Structure formats: C-alpha cells, structure tokens
Amino acid sequence: MYLLPAIDILGGKAVRLAKGDYAQVTVYHDDPAAQAQAFEEQGATWLHVVDLDGARSGIPENIEIIERIMRKTLLKVEVGGGVRSLDTVARLADAGVSRMVLGTALVTDRSFAEAAIEGFGRLLAAGIDAKGGEVAIAGWCEGSGVRAEELAREVASWGIRHLIYTDIARDGMQTGIDPQAYVRMAVAFGHPVIASGGVAGLEDIENLGCVAASIEGVIAGRAVYEGALAVCEGVAACEAATRRAEAAAVAADPCGLGVSPT
C-alpha cells in the first residue's frame, strides 16, 4: 500500500468537490504545483491528479499545470480527467507521468481505450467511479447503466493491471470508508485496487490495512487539506500495513509454494 495525496484542478486551482458536485467547490491552493511540492516535502512519493475541467469537457485543460508539477517535483504522478485521445495520452507520457487513468472512455469509446492500451498499456489504469454500484461518467455528471464490478472484470480482460475505485457518495465528505467495497472490487478485478473516496483520517487507512492484500494504494484529499490526516502519518501507516501483509503471506506460505502449511 502507498498513499496518494490528491490534487483536483479546476480553473487552474487545487480544489475538492463534495460528492463530485461541481457546485460544491472548496479551493485549497491557488498553485497546484506548489501544493505538489508541499506534499513531496511531507513525505509523499505518489500524487493523484485530476483535471476536473477536462473530466467535464472531455478536453484536457490543465496539462500545462501537470507538466509544471512534473518539472518541480520527483513525485510519481497519476493523472486522470479528460484522457480521451491518443494525443493526450502521448503528451502526458512525454511529460513523464507514471500512470494515466482512463475513465469515461472505458464506457463511451472502447476503440480509443483499446488503442491506448495497445500503445501505452503499462502506463494506464482504469478509473471506475460509482454511485449506488453504477459507473458514473463525464466528470460524474452522468450515469452509464454499467455496473462497477462488471466493468472491473472487463478491463482486467483487456490487460489493465491498475484500477482506481471511487465511491462517489463518500468522496470529499470525510465520512469514512467501507473496506469491503474495495475487497469486492479487487475480487472482480483480480488484482489489488487503489481506494478513493471518504478517507477521513488515519483510522480509515488502518482499516484498509486490515485488507491490505486487496489494496494497492489509498487516495486522500480533503482529510489531508483540512488537517485530519498528516501526509507523513498516512505514508507510514501504508508502509506498516504493507509489512504486515507481507509477513502474513510469508507465515501462510513459508516455502513460497503458493499453498498454506497444513
């Protein structure tokens, strides 16, 4: 497990939305690149960036800001929002991002998604954002009629090996998380998932740590900005959970044979 502090960019600023509602915006920093530097200084090694303008319009509108983040930090950067053309994928790859998140295009433009996977597969992740179990698209403004677990199984069959799952009803609300929701998604996907939505503090990361075998990373936004979770504490909790999960795996299969001792 690893922590990914989140920077959502809207109108050139670092913001958070409540439940994905563009009418409920809180601005946390006027300069997203400076915010990224602060997260790096606090111990983060990963950063989750969402171009909210691009997510809504379908056209990336904040790539220059993302490029500035890449120049000013050594963070591994995961980017989503408006990644719906091969030109966008290529430009982000050239900027040096570590991962690009395909969301809406997974549902609305399968030919693009397949072409992106063919050309940039190792840099891609699926972004599945769900409300009531249904995948939401177009910056969470529309329903898709597709069930989240169904889409998880499908993208895994395409060869995607990273998945960010967001519980929209909890996102930006600091209401806490449901660890079993991510376990269910990991089972459907066949690989650990990145948990997003509702992290209220250290306790939520510790709760996810109890199911660490199903969790690749944890995205935290409002809790970090409002002081409920210190980045350094979140990073340490993720690292501790990883060590516990690895120790448990060794104890269950000390010879590395893929079977538990009898």
Task: Kindly describe this structure.
With 262 residues, the chain is of the alpha/beta class. The chain contains eleven helices and twelve strands. The chain has helices at 32-41, 52-57, 63-72, 86-95, 104-108, 110-120, 148-157, 179-189, 202-209, 222-225, 231-252; strands spanning 2-10, 13-18, 21-29, 46-51, 76-80, 99-102, 124-131, 134-137, 142-147, 163-167, 193-196, 215-220. The protein has an eight-stranded parallel β-barrel with strand order 1-4-5-6-7-10-11-12, surrounded by eight helices. Helix 4 links the parallel strand 5 (76-80) and strand 6 (99-102). Helix 4 (86-95) packs parallel to helix 6 and helix 9 runs parallel beside helix 11 (231-252). It is globular and about 50 Å long.
What's the count of strands?
A: 12
Low-confidence stretches: none
Number of separate helices:
11
Q: Which structural class do the helices and strands define?
A: alpha/beta
In round numbers, the mean pLDDT is 89
Overall spatial form: globular
Order of helices and strands: EEEHEHHEHEHHEEEHEHEHEHH
Describe the largest sheet. 8 strands, parallel, barrel
CA-based gyration radius: 17 Å
Distance between the termini: 29 Å
Q: What is the subunit organization of this protein?
A: single chain
Strand order of the largest sheet: 1-4-5-6-7-10-11-12
Summarize the amount of helix as a percent range: 40-55%
Strand content: 25-35%
